[in-house]
Design brief:
By secondary structure, the protein is of the alpha/beta class. The chain has twelve helices and eight strands.
Length: 306
């Protein structure tokens, strides 16, 4: 009960709207660079805040995964386990992922879940379980597996991910999609959802896989090269945060390219949100908008995979 109470208290007291924009901007830099946690907190403590403490705000932005998960791994509606599979041309030739199947014999329509820029953390595993309780078989690959796997904390995870060859990492994710699509429990209908780096990767998968991908849902993901948009065959559901200048800088050009190539897509921007608003382990989480985006996501998969 204590953890639940702490979670509720933290989300109510410290939300995106009560965190100074300068701290949010610094946190985004911290998440997408090699900045250490110590440097992040030190720099935050030096920022002048009119009402409150920069250090306190920064500390509360750090993820609390244990407090945030929504579907327990023992939930009777699902059966999760880790799997290994071959990944030719990837970082090591082998991959590992978190496979969650719904209760029952199947086969099931399949959804790939691609993590942020720090490996397969508990938030992404929870997302895989959320997908599975909706009746899909879900696979969340760990891009860090070839170099030891998600290390248990995001600081080391993001540094590890930056050390990987980008093309080999993407090949590992592409091979994960192929493994899931051809899994004996899969119908062969495949969707993909990703967050941040994962959102960018889903956009890239849509380009690379063509007709082999049936639905794609990137959350705040950078756009693919516009001269390759014509290759996309999957319907797209694109989620953007309202306040996310880094990712949104490519949004309009992407929209234009999709329209010019007559692609099937929906694009949504969520009010009062910043990058990472779906991640419920930090105060960047916007409960109302995250639930709306997730409802749209599940409905989209049910429409296009069925």
């Amino acid at each position: 009960m204590r953890n639940k109470e702490n979670t509720i208290s933290r989300k109510v007291i410290m939300t995106r709207s009560t965190i100074d924009p300068k701290i949010l901007e610094l946190y985004d830099e911290y998440c997408h660079s090699t900045m250490t946690r110590r440097d992040f907190l030190t720099r935050a403590s030096s920022i002048a805040i009119v009402s409150g403490s920069g250090l306190a705000m920064a500390s509360l932005l750090l993820p609390r995964y244990a407090e945030a998960h929504t579907i327990d791994f023992t939930n009777e509606r699902i059966k999760p386990h880790y799997v290994k599979y071959e990944s030719p041309g990837g970082s090591s030739g082998e991959m590992r992922g978190y496979l969650v199947k719904p209760a029952g014999d199947g086969p099931f329509h399949a959804v790939l879940i691609i993590h942020e820029n720090r490996g397969l953390n508990p938030y992404i595993e929870d997302v895989a379980r959320r997908v599975a309780v909706e009746g899909f078989i879900a696979l969340a690959p760990d891009g860090l597996f070839p170099i030891g796997g998600y290390p248990g904390n995001d600081d080391d995870g993001k540094i590890m991910q930056k050390s990987l060859n980008e093309d080999q990492l993407f090949t590992d994710l592409l091979n994960s999609a192929k493994f899931l699509k051809t899994n004996e429990l899969s119908t062969g209908k495949l969707g993909a959802v990703g967050f941040c780096f994962g959102g960018s990767s889903v956009n890239k998968l849509a380009v690379q896989m063509g007709v082999d991908l049936d639905a794609a849902v990137p959350f705040y993901g950078s756009a693919p090269a516009t001269n390759e948009v014509f290759k996309i065959q999957a319907p797209l559901l694109l989620h953007y945060a309202k306040d996310d200048p880094r990712v949104n800088s490519s949004r309009q050009e992407y929209k234009n390219a999709l329209e010019n190539n007559n692609k099937d897509f929906e694009m949504h921007s969520y009010e009062a949100t910043s990058h990472g608003f779906h991640n419920d382990s930090t105060p960047r989480y916007n409960e109302k908008q995250a639930k709306l985006a997730w409802l749209r996501t599940i409905s989209f998969f049910k429409k296009h995979l069925n």
